[in-house]
Predict the 3D structure of the following.
Amino acid sequence: MINEPLFAESTRHLEGPARALHLAPVATSPAPQDAFDPAKSYREIRAGFEADFERAYVKWLLDRHDGNISAAAREARMDRKYLYDLARKHGLRGPRSAD
């Protein structure tokens, strides 16, 4: 069991997305062993996980700000153009939009 006052104190310095991610429930295992393809290299597997995280994070940010790139970029403390490029990369903006 988590000591709530101690936990709250230990996360006080975190803000915005970092605090939200820190407070989110965490699975005991980040990926089941059957999620790994033995035919792929470490680099390929890591790139897949990073791409999945990147897409989920950008979608989460944009959902929180009703699609407003500027507001989402401010919260994430990243350049607006970079966030826009990430959104396009993952099909969340532009002609390839899946949502």
